[in-house]
C-alpha cells in the first residue's frame, strides 16, 4: 500500500505529520498519533499505539519519523481493511536502484541520506548508521537487507 500512495496523498500525510509534530523535531509520539487516529474514528489505546510505534520504528524510541509514520498508517489501513499490505519485489528493486546512486549494489550512508531527504527527512549520522548497520555489521546495505526489513513490516508479492 505504501507504494500505491499518490503524490497528493503523501503531501496530505506530510501536512498531517507536520501539524502533529508540534515541536518541529521531525518526530511524533504515541499521544499525537492516538489523537490523529481518533479524528478518523480509529480508537486505539495508548498501549496499542505505543506497540505500533515500537514495531514500525527502525530504532524503537517511542517516536516515529515521517517514513515510519507512513508505514504505520499503511499497516493500520491494511488491518482495517483486513488485507495485508503488499509491496512487489519489482517495486522494491526499483526503489533500491533509485537509491543506489552509484549503482554498486549497496546503499552507502550518502545514498540513504539522499533517499530520506527525498521524502523530506533529515537524518543524523547516527540514524543513517543505525539503518546501514541494522541488518549487517559490515556496513554494506544490500537489496536483500531492504527486502528483509520490508518483509518484516509488510507482505511482498512476487510479480517477476
Automatic annotation (TrEMBL):
Gene Ontology cellular component annotations, sorted alphabetically = myosin II complex
Q: Name one Pfam family in it.
A: EF-hand_7
Has the keyword Calcium been applied to this entry? yes
Q: Name one GO molecular function term.
A: calcium ion binding
- Residue stretches making up the EF-hand domain: 8-43, 87-122
InterPro entries linked: CALM/Myosin/TropC-like, EF-hand-dom_pair, EF_Hand_1_Ca_BS, EF_hand_dom
Which keywords has UniProt assigned to this entry?
Answer: Calcium, Repeat
Kindly indicate where the leader peptide sits in this chain: none
Q: Does the keyword Calcium apply?
A: yes
The organism's superkingdom is given as: Eukaryota
Q: Note the PANTHER family from the entry.
A: CALMODULIN LIKE 3 (PTHR23048:SF0), MYOSIN LIGHT CHAIN 1, 3 (PTHR23048)
Its protein name is EF-hand domain-containing protein
Amino acid at each position: 500500500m505504501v507504494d500505491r500512495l499518490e503524490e497528493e496523498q503523501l503531501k496530505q500525510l506530510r501536512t498531517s505529520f507536520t501539524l502533529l509534530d508540534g515541536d518541529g523535531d521531525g518526530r511524533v509520539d504515541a499521544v499525537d498519533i492516538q489523537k490523529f487516529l481518533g479524528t478518523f474514528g480509529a480508537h486505539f489505546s495508548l498501549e496499542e499505539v505505543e506497540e505500533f510505534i515500537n514495531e514500525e520504528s527502525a530504532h524503537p524510541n517511542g517516536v516515529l519519523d515521517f517514513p515510519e509514520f507512513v508505514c504505520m498508517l499503511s499497516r493500520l489501513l491494511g488491518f482495517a481493511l483486513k488485507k495485508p499490505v503488499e509491496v512487489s519485489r519489482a517495486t522494491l528493486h526499483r526503489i533500491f536502484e533509485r537509491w543506489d546512486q552509484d549503482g554498486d549494489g549497496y546503499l552507502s550512508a550518502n545514498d540513504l541520506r539522499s533517499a530520506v531527504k527525498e521524502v523530506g527527512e533529515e537524518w543524523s549520522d547516527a540514524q543513517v548508521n543505525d539503518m546501514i548497520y541494522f541488518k549487517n555489521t559490515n556496513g554494506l546495505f544490500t537489496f536483500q537487507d531492504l527486502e528483509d526489513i520490508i518483509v518484516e513490516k509488510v507482505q511482498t508479492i512476487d510479480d517477476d
